[in-house]
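Reply to dn_fold:

You asked what the input looked like. This is it:
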Amino acid sequence: MFKRQTTGSVICTSCGTLVGVNDAVCYSCNRRNPGLWGYAPAFRRLGQDLGFVPLVMGGTIVLYVLSLLVDVAGMRPILAPSSMAIRLLGASGSYPVFVEGRWWTVLTAGWLHGGLLHIVLNMLWIRQLAPAVAELYGPGRMVIVYTLAGVVGFTFTSVAGRYIGFLPLIGGAQLSLGASAPIFGLLGALVYYGNRTGSRHVREAGLQYALMMGIFGLIMPGIDNQAHLGGFVGGYVAGLLLDPLKPERIDHLVGGAACLVVTLVAVVASFVTALPLLLN
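and this is what came back:
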């Protein structure tokens, strides 16, 4: 599948024009190394998002099943993992971040879910939004947007839970998890793209989805509205910093891969550091 092409032409990974496999620069969009050292065709076979959606779905499903298995006795109705299990695997919020000092959980919480319906709905949203953002920004920048939005979203709710936790609806959470924060980040990136390019359709679609999900969060109990707000802000700012009107560069792909590696390290760190706390 990942066989390297050494001769001939390939399609530029940024603008889609035909370039030589060994060309240093794309003459249409000025992207450096448009053929990705001959691996561009292999990466294109992964899809527009370079396999990110299957990776997220696979990773979150594995962690969800693991969260059920590590504390079967504490499992709640409708296949909801126990608080001990989600803390062990890296749930965020004011308690893990400020009381336990496990600040890196702002990276891991977006990969955990509190029940079967929770994970199913979020995976459906990711399947719809991630490829769309990857098409507009490029897959590397989409992963960066997703990761930064999650970090900002769970930082928002952790700080709010610490200092204004007594307020209803916007008081943050002591324990928070779920892909909704980075999903709102994808919506924020879409809104910024619409503003930056003048695409009314993209801007309104992003705003409508965000408002619909935001209203749902205000009506339904147990929804972390601060994480949603922070995720949207994080995605919008990430879109601004990454500028979708400029072609994606190789360092964006490297940055996206680094985000995934750092997140994996954070998951391992969460498990290693939480186990002694929970056993005491």
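The two ends are 48 Å apart (CA to CA).
Hope that clears it up.
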